[in-house]
């Protein structure tokens, strides 16, 4: 039996859909760099499962929370297929341009937890050595993953640092075991930020 490939392409679609609700499928394909047929198939699958619908050609969420739990299931497979380095780092200006904060480290940026220790950092292959040069025995321990450059292109700023996408930080915290009582608070905060950004664009 051939093992299933981790759904890394699907995650690009998830990230764009979650952060920019109301896009048309061709727009999602263009932003992600994926072909239209594959993008269409992923969206139609989400429609069948009841997470989204298509209104006037635009993809609209019906169940954002359920979608995040589905994403977390996919993300567990993705992270499980990757190796990571546990690195002690101090979040400062030197680190800012080299990594994307996610999981528990993003919750720290949101002010939801008091320490980023154990959180996820994403970097790229060409940035990895620069990050490793910043190791500090007095820093916080992070899980450092090499990830797709795509997320540096769509990154969002949060508290002076960068995250890969709003949806991904929530999916990652679910994979890291976020407490149920914290999920609703984080979910409402993230959705409010996304909607606030849409209002500003309008």
TrEMBL record:
Query: Which Gene3D superfamilies does this UniProt record tie to the protein?
Result: Winged helix-like DNA-binding domain superfamily/Winged helix DNA-binding domain
Return the Pfam families for the record. HTH_IclR
A GO molecular-function annotation: DNA binding
Domain (HTH iclR-type): residue spans on this chain: 20-53
Question: Which portions of this protein are annotated as coiled-coil regions?
Answer: none
Q: Name one GO biological process term.
A: regulation of DNA-templated transcription
User: Which protein are we looking at?
Assistant: HTH iclR-type domain-containing protein
């Amino acid at each position: 039996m051939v093992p299933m490939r981790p759904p890394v392409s699907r995650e690009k679609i998830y990230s764009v859909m979650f952060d920019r609700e109301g896009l048309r499928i061709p727009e999602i394909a263009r932003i992600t760099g994926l072909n239209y047929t594959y993008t269409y198939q992923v969206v139609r699958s989400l429609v069948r499962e009841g997470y989204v619908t298509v209104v006037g050609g635009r993809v609209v969420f019906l169940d954002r929370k359920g979608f995040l739990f589905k994403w977390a299931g996919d993300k567990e497979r993705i992270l499980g297929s990757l190796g990571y380095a546990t690195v002690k780092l101090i979040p400062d200006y030197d680190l800012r341009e080299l990594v994307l904060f996610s999981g528990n480290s993003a919750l720290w940026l949101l002010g939801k937890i008091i320490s980023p220790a154990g959180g996820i950092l994403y970097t790229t292959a060409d940035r990895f050595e620069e990050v490793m040069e910043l190791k500090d025995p007095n820093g916080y321990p992070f899980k450092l993953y090499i990830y797709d450059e795509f997320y540096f292109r769509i990154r969002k700023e949060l508290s002076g640092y960068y995250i890969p996408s709003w949806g991904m930080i929530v999916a990652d915290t679910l994979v890291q075991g976020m407490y149920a009582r914290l999920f609703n608070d984080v979910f409402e905060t993230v959705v409010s930020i996304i909607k606030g950004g849409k209002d500003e664009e309008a």
